[in-house]
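Sat 14:20. Reprocessing the chain from the morning session after the first attempt stalled halfway. Input below, unchanged.
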Amino acid sequence: MTTVRRARERGVEILTLDSPGNRNALSAALVGDLAAALADAGRDPHARAVLLTHTGNTFSAGADLRDPPDPEALVGLLRALVELTKPVIGRVTGHVRAGGVGLLAACDIAVASHTADFAFTEVRIGVAPAVISLPVLPRADPRALARYYLTGERLHATEAVRVGLLTAAGDDVDTVLEPILDGLRRASPQGLAETKRLLTARVLETFDRDAADLTALSGRLFATPQAREGMTAFLERRDPEWVM
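Finished this time. Tokens:
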């Protein structure tokens, strides 16, 4: 059973994360399904852009701790979003956590409703936002990231716009999206592809330079005793042993 539903509306390929049982967490299955859907959209001459959205009240809860993706597969998915020759727009109406924020950061444009909230929760389970930093660090304000990476605090949509994690937010996310999608439909495929290439060049430089090191860091941290305690505490819905 697929975890990603596909639809088409006036040249926009709509990919909907549809794994409500784990709040659209980045499981091995979801990462594989989304990568395949993106590849198909990239080959489709009738797809002008890709809209990435979700079912339920959570865009993505981050890595699935019961069925985590291989770090290299996650890197591949994030790079596929950045490298796709068609613009990718993230649409959020709920919660976004950890790896889910990385998924959104890899999109070219990201919009959300004012009810959405975001958090880098990795530090609270004993790891670091390693792999997702590949798209996040080049696109967001470094001083703000220092706060939110280190504390795991939630930030709401208005703050996410201010620090560069979102493009725009509004009471009705589809109203915010309307002029964006209209503009993309009016643009030529060649113009979009070449303009996206200009915009993503520095992000891809970060992938080329840092992907191997951050993948290794992620693997090392998840194997540590503190990470095991943090993940166990999360699954058992209790505080980990280090909380004061």
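The first strand starts at residue 4 and ends at 9.
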